[in-house]
Amino acid sequence: MSQEKEQSRYEALAEKWLKGTITPEEAQEYAAWYNAGQDAPVDIPASFAASEAEQEKRIWNKITARTGFPGHTATVAPSRRRRWWVAAAVTAAIVTAGYCWHHLQTKTLPARQLATHAPDAAPGSDKAVLTLSNGRQILLDSAGNGALAQQGGVRIVKNEDGSILYVDEHSGALTDTLYNIMSVPKGGQYKLILPDGSRVWLNAASSLKYPVAFSNRERSVELTGEGYFEVTASAASPFRVTVRNTQIAVLGTSFNIMGYADETGIQTTLLSGAVKVKQGTTEKMLTPGQQAVVNNENGRISVGETETALATAWKDGQFRFSGNNIPMVLRQIGRWYNIDIVYQGSIPQGHITGKVPRNMKLSGVIRILELSGIRCRQEAGRLLVFPSS
Question: What was the pLDDT predicted at 343?
Fold first, then answer.
């Protein structure tokens, strides 16, 4: 087949796919052509869509209809990395928007192999356990709104939106420093308002230890896992976050810290204000738009520019990646869906760029992973990941 005829053939298949008239045999033909490494951009006739934006919208609507996603608007930018939120379209989506995508390195599994008898894991939700200074524990997702407890001169309240608020009502200094711990399990997230008005969002498998009332000299908390902070400014009382042996000091700012022990480093991403990251005797100052990474092995701090929306996407209800390796992507999925990632042989290689909403069930995510070449299967409490074929 000549190059001109081949292009015409696959333009026609792309249009049939978007219209929903493509046959299974034609879809298989198109996928085989694409997986063979054909990644040159194909021009679609101008009459096919008024604009690229309209074309992207039509592509996404078709993907959501085919995979059962909740409604979502995709933002597409030129890239040669694998984009797994549109990989569900392993066919027309790659070429009809007029972009050049990196070809899939492995063949996708037939749809019939996606079936599983395991219960479909639901996405995470607002849930956490609050441990008071006396050891009493409160399940926040089942607790009613209103006052939950009194700690010294501080009242702990659950707001109507589910967040926890600390209201400092004591007169004079506290004789003892009382600490609370908010623990968010895998499959959860939670929001907390500290006594100084600072707001904290905790991601899955995370915890925060903090005093129920801050002193006038310093505000210190301890984080495990991941948290997003909006700190109330106070020049007289700096705010410090400790993550293992790393300290982040601020006066008033917005930033995200990702410090899971199973990641390669502690990431601090600054959205506004200024923070200082300290590891041992080394200190680095960040300006908005920068990210500091403390290497877990050698403690070195590297600083660079970053897209801050990538670090805070979880707080806004999305998975969002930009060239992240597959194991890191799967670890995030495992935390959010409260499942264990179990590799059945070698770990798949490659990097992923893209975004999907975090409110879909695990089966929807599995469809996307499968269609982008990551072979996996859901079992009770586990996601089995197979080597690329």
Answer: 95
Q: Give the C-alpha separation, 347 to 256, whole Å.
A: 29
Edge to edge, the sheet with strand 376-379 lists 340-343, 382-385, 376-379
241: left (phi over 0), alpha (psi -120 to 50) or beta: beta
Question: Which residues have a Cβ under 8 Å from the Cβ of 38 and sit 6 or more positions away?
Answer: 10, 103
The domains of the chain, with CATH numbers, are 3-114 (no CATH), 122-214 (no CATH), 316-385 (3.55.50.30)
Residue with tokens 């050891």: 135
Non-local (6+) Cβ contacts of 333 within 8 A are: 319, 339, 341, 362, 365, 383
Distance from C-alpha of 124 to C-alpha of 188, rounded to nearest angstrom: 5
Residue 331's CB is within 10 A of a number of other CB atoms, namely 17
Residue numbers of the chain with a pLDDT score lower than 50 = 37-50, 52, 63, 66-116, 175
Contact 222, 242 (CB under 8 A): yes
